[in-house]
Amino acid sequence: MAMFDIKTYLKEKRELVDSYLKSYFETPSEPSILHEAMRYSIFAGGKRIRPILALASYEACGGEPKDIIPYASALELIHTYSLIHDDLPEMDNDDLRRGKPTNHKVFGEAMAILAGDALLTEAFYMIANTNPPSRGRDRVGGSSDMKINPSSLIKIIHDIAISSGAYGMVGGQVLDILSENTKPDIDILHFIHLHKTAALITASVRMGPILADSDEDTLKALTRYGENIGLAFQIIDDILDIEGNAKELGKSSGSDKKKMKMTYPSLLGVEGSREKAQDLIAEAINVLRIFSSKADPLREIAHYLIKRRS
Amino acid sequence: MAMFDIKTYLKEKRELVDSYLKSYFETPSEPSILHEAMRYSIFAGGKRIRPILALASYEACGGEPKDIIPYASALELIHTYSLIHDDLPEMDNDDLRRGKPTNHKVFGEAMAILAGDALLTEAFYMIANTNPPSRGRDRVGGSSDMKINPSSLIKIIHDIAISSGAYGMVGGQVLDILSENTKPDIDILHFIHLHKTAALITASVRMGPILADSDEDTLKALTRYGENIGLAFQIIDDILDIEGNAKELGKSSGSDKKKMKMTYPSLLGVEGSREKAQDLIAEAINVLRIFSSKADPLREIAHYLIKRRS
User: How is A68-93 classified by DSSP, letter by letter?
Assistant: First the structure.
């Protein structure tokens, strides 16, 4: 693995996911404006980190990444729905996302809410549809030849739902909103990041061992890896929000500060936050010690996340 | 079945569902305001028609209704989320629902959007959690002793997701919004009602034969029953909106007209609409002819729906 190049790996896996999503969403459907709004945000330049983590963790567990593309891609639908709803005027009120107008700026608030609702629902459809369905149109990119155990699919649906809903991402977003303009508190911040960001990232990493039917120790190790990189990911985001510029982040830098959001840099300083992120990444890589070189992509992704500039 | 009393049947089944939902939602959780917002709308007086239809169709297929309560109850979470989002100022802008202030009037718009998101997500969790989960808190009312085939669960998730998302309820809501103040057209109205209302009602009815592993003819008959009563249900709603009073409907009567919404009465007149609903109910009961007396609750529900006053 001396020649392993993380950038090439990320590019290849991103193309696998993009290609699946493109064929999945290309069928024209009514009402066309809704599908246009869904596509707009799905193809707004996302890095597909969550699907790639699922593919890499499946690979670490001895699987062939291309066998689980629909399940991995469903994670991107959930992530995208959460961005659309978070950007709404009632929430974070952001006009730009990855350098482009946010969904509601283009399609209006009603359509943005509904496009988010539809993407969240479609994620579960995308997972369930890979088991030969009894009804509904067959969409391009389907995979009725896949032979993943239905009880494994139920487990990932369970995992994704708990990580995305009131006990995960939505709960984190609620506390994030409630804590604006309140006294910074590291425990509250930890709760917010663990739920708002780390929960779905952890579910993405856990998808690999669950679909590969791995043993409990493997699942536990990858769960800890996911929680650690998930938190580190959010800390780096906070740092980039301060240090970054509008071009790199695709939104005005310092937008968190303007909204008086609680962040790691505001509590620990930029250097303290960077150290915290480095500790988390080191711990994430450490829990991977029980894995062979098949986990090298996961190791390199952890290194990459802390070095990223956008 | 001469003594069969539909009101008693509906009351008993509603209590089964309410009792499950009460124990499911009683565990205190953080952030408490989010869970309070979710509970507010779940316990705002819904008639639990969708869960009851699932229980009755399972019974028609030879099953024991109490064995599928969590799956049936998940339908109510999806229905409730759709009401919360539909009532938002950006959508139908309703202040009252079943005589009570709508979710966003009590908790604010951000929380209403998030409570809806959480309920939609929780519906899939509720279904997947009945297969013994590998993680997450065990909530009261769980049912790990249930032995429904995981591939049947995948099928109902598939069915519910396609009926609720872009190809079902959300798609119908989008066209409903788009068609306000446009020229009334029976084909568009049919599309709206079929998607916005009938799709999830049909999925509710189809839950029975899918979980009972019934044959294709049974599934087809119940699908037609569901589509027919689903459309009739919406037509009666439209009529009640005109004829009803605020007390019975829990919202200002004539609110559709004020918004220039396309309705059956505006296209066919009240009498024409009532005839249309009666034809649909007759057809629904006709397709049940292949069933024994076990389908009597479904037959009586069809009669009941057209006679209801609220």
Answer: GHHHHHHHHHHHHHHHHHHTSTTTT-
Tell if the CB–CB gap between B110 and A154 is shorter than 8 Å.
no
DSSP B243-303: H--HHHHSS-TTHHHHTT---HHHHHHHHHHHHHHHHHHHHHHHHGGGS-GGGHHHHHHHH
Rounded to 5 degrees, φ, ψ at A290 are -75, -5
Q: Which of A118, A135, A158 comes nearest B165 by C-beta?
A: A118
**Is A133–B158 a contact, with Cβ atoms under 8 angstroms apart?**
yes
Instruction: Check if the beta carbon of residue A180 is closer than 8 Å to that of residue A259.
Output: yes
Summarised one tens digit per residue, pLDDT across range B125-150 is: 999 997 554 334 343 333 444 578 99
Token pair recorded at residue B155: 């099928």
% of chain B at pLDDT higher than 90: 80
On the question of pLDDT at A23 being above 60, the answer is yes
CB contact under 8 A, B136 and A150: no
Residue A272 lies in a domain: yes
**Quick check: is B124 in a domain?**
yes
pLDDT band at A252 (very low <50, low <70, confident <90, very high): low
Range of the domain at B284: 6-307
Residue A247 has pLDDT above 80, yes or no: no
Question: Are A246 and A167 spatial neighbours (Cβ–Cβ below 8 Å)?
Answer: no
**Can you give the CATH number for the domain in which A53 is found?**
1.10.600.10
Q: Above 50 in pLDDT, residue B277? A: yes
* Domain count of the fold of chain B: 1
Chain B residue at shortest CA distance from A81: B117
Residues 6+ apart with CB under 8 A from B15: none
Span of A56-60, A248-252, B152-156 with lowest mean pLDDT: A248-252
Of residues A244 and A96, the one with the higher pLDDT is A96
* B122 vs A169: CA distance, rounded Å: 12
How many C-beta neighbours within 10 Å does residue B163 have? 27
Q: Which residues of B touch A164 (CB under 8 A)?
A: 121
Spatial distance between the Cα atoms of B117 and A152, rounded to a whole number of angstroms: 24
Q: Closest by alpha carbon to A65, among A55, A76, A50, A52?
A: A55
Residue A249 inside a domain? The answer is yes
- Which B residues in the span 164-223 are in contact with A, Cβ-Cβ below 8 Å? 164-167, 170-171, 173-175, 177-178, 191, 210, 219, 223
Specify the pTM.
Answer: 0.93
B101: left (phi over 0), alpha (psi -120 to 50) or beta: beta
Of B31, B173, B174, which has the smallest distance from its Cβ to A33's Cβ? B174
B125–A178: do the CB atoms touch at under 8 Å? Answer: no
CB contact under 8 A, A162 and B125: yes
Q: Is residue B302 part of a domain?
A: yes
Q: From CA A122, how far away is CA A125, in angstroms rounded?
A: 5
pLDDT above 50: residue A205: yes
Count of CB atoms situated within 10 Å of the CB of A97: 22
